[in-house]
Amino acid sequence: MTQAASKLQAALQAGKFVVTGEIGPPKGTNVEPCLHEAEKYLKGAVVAVNVTDLQTAVMRVGSMVISRLLLERGMEPVFQMVCRDRNRLALQSDLLSAHVLGIRNVLALTGDHVALGDHRQAKCVFDLDSVGLLAAMSNLESGHDMGVDVKGNPNALDGAPRFFKGCCVTPCAEDLDMQIIKLEKKAAAGAQFVQTQAVYDPAAFEKFMNRIAHLKVPVLVGIVLLKSAGMAKYMNASVPGVTVPEPLIQRLTDASKDDREKVSVEICGELIRSMKHLCQGAHLMTLGWDHCVPDIIQAAGLA
Amino acid sequence: MRQVNLTSKDITENPSAATELTDREWAPCRYNCPVHADVRLYLEHIAQGRWRESIDTIRRHLPFAGVCGRVCHHPCEANCRRKDVDSAVAIRELKRFVAELQGASGATVHRAARQDKARVAIVGGGPAGMSGSLELAKLGYRPTVFERSPRAGGIPATAIPEYRLPRGVIQIDVDWICAHGVDLVTGTAIGRDKSVDQLRKEGFQAVLIATGLSSGKDIPIPGAPPDGVLGALEFLTDLGMGRRPRIGQDVLVIGGGNVAVDAARSAVRIGAGRVRMMCLETREEMPAFEWEQREAEEEGISFIHRRGPAEAITANGRMAGIKARRVTRVFDENKRFDPQYDDSDLIEAACDTLIIAIGQSPDYGFLNGSALRLDARGRLEYGPATCQTNVPDVFACGEIVTPPGSVVEACASGQRAARAMDMYLSGGHIVLDDSLPPFIGQIPTATAEKVRKVIRQPVAAQPPEVRRANSQEVDHTYVESAALREARRCMSCGAGAEVLVDKCAACLTCLRVCPFDIPVVTDVARIDSDRCQSCGICIAECPANAIVSRSLEAGWIARRTAAALEALRGAGPRIVVYLCGHTASAAQWRGEEQSSDGTAEVCLPSLSALSALDLLKAFENGADTVLVVTPQDSVERYPQAVKRLRKRLAQARKMLKEIGLKRTRIQLFELTRPSRTAVRETIAAAADQLRAGPIKPIGATR
Amino acid sequence: MIVGERKPMDEILAMLEPHRRVLVLGCGGCVTVCLSGGEKQADELASQLRLAARKKGRQLTVDVDCITRQCDREFVANLKCNPSDYDAVLSIACGAGVGFMSELYPQTPFLPGLNTTFYGACTANGIWQEYCYGCGDCVLAWTGGICPIARCSKGLINGACGGTNKGKCEVSSEMDCAWHLIYERLEAAGRLDELRKIRPPRDWRLDRSGGLRRLVHEELVDEEARK
Questions:
Q1: Which of A113, A121, B289, B527 has its CA 20 to 30 A from that of C188?
Q2: Better-scored residue on pLDDT, A184 or B23
Q3: Which residues in chain C are closer than 8 Å to A146, comparing Cβ atoms?
Q4: Cα–Cα distance measured from residue B619 to residue B663, given in angstroms and rounded to the nearest whole number
Q5: Is B432 within the bounds of a domain?
């Protein structure tokens, strides 16, 4: 077995059930609050922390900077990279830069369309897609970039990076066949781990895991903390491939305002418990309720 | 359908290039009319209430408009394409309507500027001779018609009874012809009072023989007393002249043609107790018009078929009846008239008066004092190619030389001979071009099915018991509303859309909007003239301005609107009203632009021709508001037309809004009951409201 | 076929503000077929401009002309109105026509009356939809005829993103997800293996990014003219 590029990779290689968290950078230069939250609640509780890259096409501080700052505070980042905003030159360059800054875990994503965000007049780039980005990463690791020299040979790098390459999938998507074909391509292009979109249906997740057994990549099941019934309903209505079952919504509805957080944590813990045996980890998306992470880990029986 | 390939260059060089297409491909009504009158055009005039234009169009080809409006055998109707949709348009009735409406003074007289070419003499004042004389007058000659009887008019005047054709009607036609500079000399028989040779000496440079078939054929009835037998022509002429021929109570008419029926029905009217007809033919074979046979039957006349008279039966020296033998066949294998009898099969038919109506024959009195000859068959020597007799400056026309025919056929014959005479007198060879343009074919079933059905307007007739007793006209003419309704059934064959092939971008819009699925688009769009219903929808929608109308010049709506606005007086808001001129009950509408109530009204044959651009142009021409008044889709002539109209108005309103003008400047009224009152009230109410409200003129100054 | 849409009227009126004599020039090509720039539309636009000018009390003369196409120089011979006689020409051809004519008449401002939007086809009466992007490297052979560059909002080439929602695009529920369509088409044809292949990133040199593009048919090129 090759040497792990990161703690995340090492933990997965060791067969541990890993938990990752997620933070979103601020809109502005005031990075202290989000870093503080991460340090307070996530450090030591999760193996690595995802840093989102202009999620939903809203302009924010870049994920590379926050990832570096996490490293400086003793946490391991998962550097999320979308293909929407940069062409292949910038993406490869940023990958090299990230490596130089010590970042190893990279999650390659397509990225939401600018139409969803707050800069709707901007141009979408999508020079590469997620498959292309993974291939680009593998290529850089082999000591080359995507360009050619004057003789037409691929450029050789003066110092090759190393990454732990991740990708995303939607286990409960309507068009699951199409998702799986693409996942196969991502794996072929170099994906080494998978973080899924939110799953609330263990049975469906089991079916999904059976279907991709042949891929042999570790999967971290994604769970978005359900802060309220309203949020759950919104996800059902608007987020493709994510379905919150009715009983869970009911529990949130029935919960009193004071108990809501507690119920959320409970639900999260239960879900992890029920799916633990199917996958290699869980990816928690707490949407600002990072303080719940320790309790969730507790509730999941992972402490 | 003929491939026409009209281009915009053709139109630039000749703005009438599209409208002239109606002359290059004829509707079957025009094609089958012996004088090739522009039927479609005059029906469209009637449909729009343009009476004078209509009668002028009719008379341009047909001098005897009044006469034919009553007695024509209407081959136009027999070939009317509407018969494959519901029933033929009542063309003859409409012709009668407008001729009667316009009367003596309502038709324009187009006298030639000069009539200083040769003097020509016409012998015989019947339809053939009079039509020939009119043609010659228009060509610049000075014609003189010599008629032996006191009145011109020919057979119509002498032999067609009053109840079918009032004398006054004939006189209007004759007077109109003479108003073009034709001298009419009555009471003069050529061959008796003057001779052809004398005419030449008097300075006439050519003579046209048009004496027709003025005598009745006779057959011997062995044993018949002279006062018991009458010739039909003689009988009818006497009646026509106001003389009272003596007949008995039990009349038997021998003959199966129209003259026989005329004689029989006339006998009824002067009081004969029983009138019967005996003819060689079966009912189906009888040459008399079918409707004449029917009306005769209604008046109590019965028929004895397949019998010919053999000899008379007398009692006390007076006519008591005839013995009639059976006819075994009338026509031989070659369809020639050659009756065969079975003399052993005789019946007796009682009668006290026998009227012989077995055909007419010519009177050759005009031969006296001329070098004219008869041929081996005893007929005037005549060459149809040039209309000349054996004497080069003597021509012939009409039934004297053609097979027996109708009034309109006689007119055509006279016109043709006049053209021949013109060529002769101009010193050239006589080369008559009898070729005709192609005609619009049968309407395909798929198209016929989509045409909205409208029943043919019935003609009111006097009931048989009433008409037996008098000589008034049997048929009433249409009232105005019925005439408008009937004229609007015309499908305007061959006058529809034509593609300018150089401008067509094959965008398929015409194909997509046509309610009848007519355009075919390959390299360019082609619109089959056998199918096109002339709704004008494609013309209004074509983005390339690549479709033109064969009947209406481009821009006609804008021009009419400008004219109507020009005529507008008064200070209030300038309101343009577009009306559908073809709605059934708005039929009391006359088609002229009216500027009353301060509104400039423009009556269109169909609102489906009104484009969004037309609406904008109305404003450009000075309108402040445009009202569009339409019947609902269920009544509209063209399917989906109102739906399309709504879309166009919406488009025009959008275009107004874009430049800061209120959408409300265009208003649409869809009337459930488009009666004249409803239309008037709608317009008045809208106009009142507009005057009260703040509709500003567009721009400070005009 | 090139599809364009008439510019908003206030934009056109603003463009024409400094001019007093204007020629509206239609085109008999693509823009006639999509009813945005044909002679009829030129007539309508001219009528609107005159009415707008009258409303404002402005002096404005508007003439109309139309030629077969504005992207080939020979057709200008058919012009009835001379562009040089006008302060400006408001062309309602596509951008190619406006630009090309502008080169032929450098002294006369050629203003665009349309926004040229896409290459498309008529899907229903009165409705045109984008079908092609002009990317220069057509992939329709392995996408079952459905273009992911033109019809996928992100122009992806390896399958749908995670935003595909019940066959619709995350940008708008009225837009089909092109990859959903492609998947169904290929599945029906038994050709899903095409979808399994990893497609390398596109060569954008063939697209607009590579700079101005040209088509040359050597057999028609006049060598003398080239020199």
A1: A113
A2: A184
A3: 201
A4: 12
A5: no
The CATH number of the domain holding residue B148 is 3.50.50.60
Q: Scanning the structure block, which residue is given the tokens 């066959």? A: C167
| Exposure string for C197-212, b = 16+ CB within 10 A, e = fewer | ebbebbeeeebeeeee
Q: Low-confidence residues of chain B, pLDDT below 50?
A: 584-589, 591-593, 701-702
Any chains having at least 3 CB pairs less than 8 A from chain B are C
Of A129, A168, A169, the CB nearest to C158: A129
List pLDDT tens digits, range B160-213: 998 899 989 999 999 999 999 999 999 999 999 999 999 999 999 999 999 999
Q: Is residue B183 part of a domain?
A: yes
Expressed as residue numbers, the domain containing B390 is 119-212+363-425
Q: Are A146 and C201 in contact (CB under 8 A)?
A: yes
In the block, residue with structure tokens 């060791």: A14
Interface A–C counts its CB contacts (< 8 A) at: 98
Both B521 and B567 in one domain: the answer is no
> By percentage, how much of chain A surpasses pLDDT 90?
91
The answer, for A62 touching chain C at a CB cutoff of 8 Å, is no
Q: Where are the alpha helices (DSSP H) in B529-611?
A: 537-541, 556-566
Touching pair C, B by Cβ (3+ pairs < 8 Å)? yes
B675 and B599 fall within a common domain: yes
Q: Kindly report the CA angle at C111 between C105 and C116, in degrees rounded to 5?
A: 115
Residue B283 domain flag: yes
Domains in chain C (CATH in brackets) are 2-118 (3.40.50), 135-210 (no CATH)
Distance CA A203, CA A215 (A): 20
Contact in structure between C122 and C128 (CB atoms under 8 Å):
yes
- C-alpha to C-alpha distances, B66 to B130, B165, B177, B429, B694, nearest whole angstrom: 14, 9, 12, 35, 54
* C and A make contact (3+ CB pairs below 8 Å): yes
Q: Which two tokens stand for residue B567?
A: 């005529």
DSSP B114-177: ---S-EEEEE--SHHHHHHHHHHHHTT-EEEEEESSSS--SHHHHTS-TTTS-HHHHHHHHHHH
pLDDT, position B586: 40
Query: How many residues are recorded in chain B?
Result: 702
Give yes or no: residues B540 and B578 share one domain.
Answer: no
> Does residue A112 belong to the interface with chain C, where contact is any CB pair within 8 Å?
yes
The domain made up of A18-169 has a fold known as: TIM Barrel (3.20.20)
Q: Is the dihedral of CA B23, B28, B32, B34 positive or negative?
A: negative
Q: Are residues B237 and B351 in the same domain?
A: yes
Q: Mean pLDDT throughout A284-297? A: 92
Q: Do B101 and B136 reside in the same domain of the chain?
A: no
* pLDDT for residue B472: 82
The reply to whether A224 touches chain C by the CB within 8 Å rule is no
Instruction: Tell if the CB–CB gap between B507 and C50 is shorter than 8 Å.
Output: no
pLDDT digits (tens), chain C, 227 positions: 999 999 999 999 999 999 999 999 999 999 999 999 999 999 999 999 999 999 999 999 999 999 999 999 999 999 999 999 999 999 999 999 999 999 999 999 999 999 999 999 999 999 999 999 999 999 999 999 999 999 999 999 999 999 988 899 999 999 999 999 999 999 999 999 999 999 999 988 888 877 889 998 888 888 887 65
Mark whether B636 and B543 lie in a shared domain. Answer: no
Domain ranges of chain A: 18-169, 205-303
Question: What is the ipTM for the molecules in this complex?
Answer: 0.89
Which chains form contacts with chain A, at 3 or more CB pairs under 8 Å? C
Residue B452 domain flag? yes
Q: What is the dihedral of CA C31, C35, C36, C37, to 10 degrees?
A: 60
Residues B273, B193 share a domain: no
Number of domains in chain B: 5
User: At which of B360, B390, B408 does a domain end?
Assistant: B360
pLDDT of residue B591: 47
Task: Write out pLDDT tens, residues B69-89.
Answer: 999 999 999 999 999 999 999
